[in-house]
């Protein structure tokens, strides 16, 4: 897939590829017309994410985390500002970066059962993104599905023929992660992937993400999480959102050890209660 002409960044190679951030948001603002309080969901947000980087977005409920990742993925449109994927605008379906982003990104949601069709076997759900990008050969699809399931710690022989109703929350979330990575995305986005999973199974999800980080060093990861223990294990960098604005960002160690903003300090204090 990566050899496909659409993935070649107009011929840019190596260091040149890295000079263009994988994801860039520049002065992005958003206000929902149906917003109950009339507040801006995002105000003047700018950020860049490089190939292979792992970035956590943290912030309280309603701070704009999901809105931000949805705009970065072209699933929601900003009122103003620019979002680019590999230097190409991602505004709507007609934008040059939009299709590339669809093919090269995976999304993991809080509730895994929203990503898995209840009528489909795990094998079919995990294979679906391959079908969408035109990979249909039975052997290639089966090998990719098995490999993706193995990477998230699910034994293919046991799980391929199961249906979502036969899975625990933790198993379903790992199947949903397998689905998100099966096509070898350059960007994986996870929005609170552990918060709907029972505590005992969270460790397996965390281990799946940790294993993916080392197996796929070129894949960028954006994880929304309020679990600072998870953030510490997964992310190199943290972006703190408060009422739609980035109040602070920096290396994980710097933000967690020496938070500068009072809001970040409160978030960290609340997490240690
Ligand atoms: N589709 C929508 N219509 C109207 N308002 C919305 C919509 N989506 C989000 N909002 C509002 O935008 C703000 C940011 O919401 P968002 O879902 O991005 O927050 P969040 O940080 O992901 O919160 P949570 O931690 O609860 O998931 C909130 O005030 C929310 O009510
Ligand atoms: Mg959210």
Instruction: Decide which structural class fits the backbone.
Output: alpha/beta
Termini, distance in Å?
Answer: 46 Å
CATH superfamily: P-loop containing nucleotide triphosphate hydrolases
Bound molecules: adenosine-5'-triphosphate, magnesium ion
Number of helices: 11
Largest sheet strand order: 6-7-8-3-9-10
> Radius of gyration from the CA trace?
18 Å
Please give the CATH architecture: 3-Layer(aba) Sandwich
Helix content: 25-40%
Order of helices and strands: HEEEHEEHEHHHHEHEHEEHH
CATH class: Alpha Beta
Query: How many domains would you count in the coordinates?
Result: 1
Spans of at least 5 consecutive residues whose pLDDT stays below 50 are 1-15
| CATH domain topology | Rossmann fold
**How many beta-strand segments?**
10
Biggest sheet layout:
6 strands, mixed
Overall pLDDT level: 91
Give the overall silhouette.
globular
Strand content: 15-25%
Overview of this protein structure:
It is a single chain. With 273 residues, the protein is an alpha/beta fold. The protein has one domain: P-loop containing nucleotide triphosphate hydrolases (Rossmann fold, 3-Layer(aba) Sandwich). Helix content is 38%, strand content 21%. The protein contains eleven helices and ten strands. Helix 4 packs across helix 5 (138-151), helix 4 runs parallel beside helix 7 (169-181) and helix 7 (169-181) packs parallel to helix 8 (199-215). It is globular and about 50 Å long. Adenosine-5'-triphosphate binds next to helix 2.
């Amino acid at each position: 897939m990566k050899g496909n002409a659409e993935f070649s960044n107009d011929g840019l190679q190596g260091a040149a590829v890295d000079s263009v951030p994988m994801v860039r948001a520049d002065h992005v603002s958003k206000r929902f017309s149906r917003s109950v309080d009339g507040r801006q969901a995002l105000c003047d947000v700018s950020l860049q994410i490089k190939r292979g980087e792992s970035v956590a977005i943290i912030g309280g409920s309603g701070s704009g985390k999901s809105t931000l990742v949805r705009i970065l993925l072209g699933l929601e449109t900003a009122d103003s500002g620019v979002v680019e994927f590999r230097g190409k605008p991602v505004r709507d379906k007609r934008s040059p970066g939009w299709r590339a982003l669809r093919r090269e990104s995976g999304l993991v949601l809080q509730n895994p059962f929203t990503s898995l069709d209840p009528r489909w076997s795990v094998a079919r759900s995990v294979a679906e993104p391959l079908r969408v990008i035109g990979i249909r050969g039975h052997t290639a699809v089966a090998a990719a599905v098995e490999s993706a399931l193995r990477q998230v710690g699910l034994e293919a022989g046991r799980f391929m023929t199961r249906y979502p109703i036969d899975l625990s929350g933790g198993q379903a979330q790992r199947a949903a992660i397998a689905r998100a990575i099966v096509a070898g995305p350059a960007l994986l986005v996870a929005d609170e992937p552990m918060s709907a999973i029972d505590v005992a199974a969270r460790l397996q999800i965390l281990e799946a993400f940790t294993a993916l980080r080392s197996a796929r060093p070129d894949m960028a990861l954006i994880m929304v999480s309020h679990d600072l223990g998870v953030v510490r294990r997964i992310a190199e960098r943290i972006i703190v959102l408060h009422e739609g604005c980035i109040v602070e960002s920096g290396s994980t160690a710097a933000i967690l050890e020496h938070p500068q903003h009072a809001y970040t300090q409160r978030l960290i204090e609340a997490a240690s209660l």
